[in-house]
Design brief:
mainly beta; Immunoglobulin-like; 16-stranded antiparallel beta sheet
Length: about 950
């Protein structure tokens, strides 16, 4: 049996040559709306004759177009990272190939008579055959790419027309689209009918170069149309196409996205063009724009919506790009395909560096005998590769934001990469070429890597990296002359990523290391609700997929509904293009880390807080700072204070911008101008009472003499504190971390099931000393723990001493104590690090202050529940009920705390947020330390300096009863 059309190696049939995406004043009809739709389980079961205008589709469903049909109850979503959800037998796909038939009736004005007409699809997943008025137009593959058909002869102006589209979920094209995302199907981008006037503008190529030495721009617009160009702001009026025009211009950059409005026109059509003058070069081993090295503070961005799948409303796109700008992100890798065209328009307008990636990924072949059968090295797939690259470049070539073309992602390496690199370089020599899979750098212009550790990046920055396999002396030398970009790093899955500052320091230290792109921007959770209305986000396996990759699709800096995670707040602090540092108690240094922008539009202010309360503020006058410059200032004259005091200096927008209102804080820095006085080691003890077998008393406290735990402080019921070393593993704990497997190793040594054995309990009138040994069943290693309690008239002091007994082979998740309090204590206030969660390697956004929160708001609702909500450098924390009564814990000097309405064990057992329910207690963890977060869910292992190894530790805290404010 021969191959069907949807299993062919060819890229499609019947379509027009690809061209730039643009809008003109020519007439057009948006075909979005409710279409008739029928889903058949196989191609063979799809109805015959469905393209015939006489076909009766009255029993079919209605489906919005654009849409992903699985998101509307037709079939089910399925998620895999790299595995193909069908047997690998290219180019064939399984017989069970869901097929969606779409039919749309539309009217065309009679004025279109005699006009050429084009039908444009901006995205269909994965293969479609198209008919107009019963006449076959052709077949399209390349899900994320535009396709156009000439429909002049088939269209019926002045009458009703039927557009019929048969879409197959699987096709030969699916082998090139294994892109770590939900497998979703349908006509998911715009469908437009375009009237094409005689002597209209079919295509054009904008060349708007900038000479940084002279300040002039050279404009050339190549087109076959008999067109003229006008750019009134530049004094160009009705000038020729296909010719160079040299003018004085302001350049375009991601920091200053200067655009000029141009009009490209013929006698029959006008196109509004937005020009950005800039020149991209790889020169002297650096990626430069307008003669300057740039630093990419980037993210990888997929196209996804939690309710609509691949369909993203325009207002959502704009809001997420604004959110990126407000968090100091300046670059986007369009992983792993070209985005909707409006994304590029907005990136031109708002200012982003774009790595525009081709719609090619064959990652599933990596698991099969080391890329055996990979299309990348199979000449039968050459036309498909060239077609996809050509459609990418031609569609997006006129955008100044696009500074690099990427040949695709995770597709091994082969002859087809060489072919598309050669074609791209010939078609557009103005932009460098990227492809991470070309480790020997045969065909590319930049050296790219994924998930290199900071140590590897450091070596690369020093030109001391190891030779890559397969690289000759010539290729090795060539690669060392290239700029280095991390196309993916710092895996933002769940709680994290950690270690961002380590990377940024290297990017700022080594010119060759020019930043990169965090994986990734967005969780791909699908919004679901329980029968009683509780919302959660589903991931792989939640739709009954027999093959899936679980929650690996939940790996973004924002949740599926675009709620920022603590990781995004941390990233904003690390990516900040302004550095605020202090030199002692009298000098302040401000550094402009921008590549182009001065700080003329930035206002600097200061606030002085004593014990977390503001007592003074003011503005700072900062001299004009050019990119890369720094200045030292004297600190403002501050009033005297008597308690711990902090000076915070912030940089904020001085006026409204296109992406943020005036007063938006870009970054801040802090200086402790008066530390906390050293605490008294002892205080006047309260009279004790040895008590009875049932109870042991000390000052206002009652203890359990059998377990050695606190039972009551005054009238406040307490269970604990007990030594606690366990946390619900994060995604990064669960990942392999280049062979580290933290969570697996923790479980193997039983850190999640530690038992407490009372060794001794001694009590007198002024103190109680309790010694326990904390260890896991069938393990020799343990932790000798002494709780030394003393009491004052209104408080209780704990001096906790922990000594390892034996050698622990793994770091501890955490080290501290946990206590259970009444569930009514849901109001939380603290003085210390905040406002959000932080850990030892993810604390750049932390500022010391006084913060309040509810217990619920302390939780970070990660779609896959895990350790969260830790606050660092806490001086004291108070948990109170509605009447203001509760408990205050004071550190000597500081501690970490987390408070939640469920145990770490319940958090560990949960698979979705809906699995978590308060159990009537508030659980408070007071910790001396935590193991860091890292990005081991996909990236490198956690560096030793962020691992909490078992070692002698002392933690001193006071417990004080808070009386009701009633």
């Amino acid at each position: 049996m021969g191959l069907s059309y949807y299993e062919s190696f060819d890229p499609g049939t019947g379509s027009l040559p690809p061209r730039a995406a643009f809008r003109s004043n020519a007439a057009g009809i948006d075909l979005a709306g409710q279409w008739r739709f029928l889903l058949s389980p196989t191609v063979a079961e799809a109805p015959t004759g469905m393209a015939d205008p006489e076909f009766d589709d009255s029993a079919w469903s209605l489906l919005p177009v654009p849409s992903s049909w699985q998101m509307h109850g037709h079939g089910r979503p399925a998620y895999t990272n790299m595995a193909y959800p069908f047997p690998i037998d290219p180019p064939r796909v399984a017989t069970d190939n869901p097929t969606g038939d779409h039919r749309c009736w539309f009217e065309v004005p009679a004025t279109w008579t005699g006009q050429r007409a084009v039908l444009r699809f901006d995205g269909i997943d994965s293969c479609a055959k198209v008919w107009l008025n019963g006449i076959e137009l052709g077949v399209t593959r390349g899900s994320m790419l535009a396709t156009e058909f000439d429909v002049t002869d088939e269209l019926r102006p002045g009458a009703a027309n039927l557009l019929a589209v048969r879409v197959h979920q699987w096709s030969s094209g699916s082998y090139l689209e294994a892109q770590d995302m939900w497998w979703l199907s349908g006509i998911f981008r715009d469908v437009t009918l375009l009237s094409r006037p005689a002597e209209g503008i079919e295509d054009f190529f904008v060349h708007a170069d900038y000479d940084h030495l002279t300040g002039t721009g050279t404009l050339r617009i190549d087109t076959e149309a008999p067109a003229r160009i006008s750019v009134p702001e530049l004094g160009l009026v009705d000038v020729a196409v296909n010719a160079d025009h040299v003018v004085d211009v302001e350049p375009w950059s991601a920091e200053i996205p200067r655009l000029y409005d141009a009009l490209l026109s013929t006698g029959t059509e006008e196109v509004q063009v937005r020009l950005g003058f800039r020149t991209v070069r790889v020169a002297d081993g650096l990626l430069t724009v307008n003669g300057k090295r740039i630093l990419l503070r980037g993210v990888n961005r997929h196209e996804f919506h939690p309710d609509l799948g691949r369909v993203i409303p325009a207002e959502v796109v704009r809001s997420e790009l604004l959110l990126m700008k407000r968090h100091n992100i300046n670059a986007i890798r369009t992983s792993h395909y070209p985005p909707h065209p409006m994304v590029l328009d907005l990136c031109d307008e708002l200012g982003f560096w774009l790595m525009d990636e081709c719609d090619i990924e064959t990652h599933g072949f990596e698991r099969n005998n080391g890329w055996a059968g990979n299309p990348s090295d199979d000449p039968r797939w050459e036309d498909a590769y060239v077609d996809r690259m050509r459609r990418t470049v031609e569609r997006d070539k006129n955008h100044p934001s696009v500074i690099m073309w990427s040949l695709g992602n995770e597709s091994g390496i082969g002859r087809n990469h060489e072919t598309i690199a050669e074609w791209t370089r010939f078609r557009d020599p103005s932009r460098p070429i990227h492809y991470e899979g070309d480790t020997a750098c045969r065909y590319v212009d930049v050296f790219s890597h994924m998930y290199a550790s900071p140590d590897e990046v450091d070596a690369i920055g020093r030109l001391a990296e190891e030779r890559f396999p397969g690289a000759s002396d010539e290729l090795d030398a060539r690669r060392r002359r290239m700029p280095f970009i991390l196309c993916e790093y710092a895996h933002a899955m769940g709680n994290g990523p950690g270690g961002l500052r380590d990377y940024q320091d290297l990017f700022e230290r080594y010119p060759r290391c020019q930043g990169g792109f965090i994986w990734e921007w967005l969780d791909h959770g699908i919004r679901r609700r329980t029968p009683d209305g509780r919302e959660y986000f589903a991931y792989g396996g939640d739709f009954g997929e027999p093959l899936h990759d679980g929650n690996f699709v939940i790996d973004g800096l924002v949740s599926a509904d675009r709620t920022p995670s603590p990781g995004l707040v941390e990233l904003a602090a690390v990516f900040a293009p302004i550095k605020i540092e202090f030199d002692g108690l009298d000098r302040l240094r401000i550094t402009n880390l921008n590549d182009y922008a001065t700080l003329d539009e930035i206002a600097f202010g200061w606030v002085l807080e004593e014990n977390g309360h503001q007592i003074a503020d003011g503005e700072l006058r900062v001299a004009r700072l050019l990119p890369g410059e720094q200045t030292d200032l004297e600190l403002p004259k501050l009033p005297g204070t008597t308690a711990e005091s902090w000076l915070t200096v912030s940089a904020r927008t001085a006026r409204d911008t296109a992406w943020a209102p005036a007063g938006h804080v870009i970054t801040s820095g802090q200086l402790c101008v008066r530390p906390t006085p050293e605490y008294e080691q002892e205080f006047a003890p309260a009279a004790g009472d040895p008590g009875s077998v049932a109870a042991l008393r000390l000052g206002p406290a009652t203890f359990d003499p059998v377990r050695g735990t606190l039972k009551q402080l005054g009238d406040l019921v307490i269970d604990g504190p007990r030594l606690d070393v366990w946390r619900a593993p994060t995604d990064n704990d669960l990942g392999e971390g280049r062979g580290q497997y933290l969570a697996r190793n923790w479980r193997e040594v039983g850190l999640h099931r530690m038992t407490h054995t009372l060794i001794s309990l001694t009590a007198d009138e002024t103190s109680i000393a309790i010694v326990t040994r904390v260890a896991a069943a069938n393990q020799r290693e343990g932790l000798l723990t002494e709780y030394h309690w003393t009491a004052g008239p209104d408080r209780l002091r704990l001096r906790l001493t922990v000594t390892p007994d034996g050698e622990f082979s793994v770091p501890l998740p955490r080290l501290g104590v946990r206590l259970a309090l009444p569930g009514a204590l849901t109001n939380v206030e603290w003085f210390g690090g905040g406002p959000g969660e932080a850990y030892i390697d993810s604390r750049q956004a932390v500022r010391i202050g006084r913060y309040t929160s509810t217990l619920d708001d302390l939780q970070t609702q990660y779609a896959f529940p895990q350790e969260n909500g830790n606050r660092v450098d806490v001086r004291w924390v108070a948990l109170t009920d509605a009447a203001g009564a509760g408990l205050r814990v004071t550190g000597h000097p500081v501690f970490d705390f987390a408070a939640r309405p469920w145990t770490s064990e319940a958090l560990d057992a949960a698979k979705h947020t809906i699995d978590l329910a308060p159990d009537g207690h508030t659980y408070l963890n007071i910790d001396a330390g935590h193991t860091g977060i890292g990005s081991g869910s996909c990236g490198p292992g956690l560096p030793d300096r962020y691992q909490l190894m078992a070692a002698p530790t002392v933690l001193v805290v006071d417990f004080q009863l808070i009386r009701s404010s009633d």
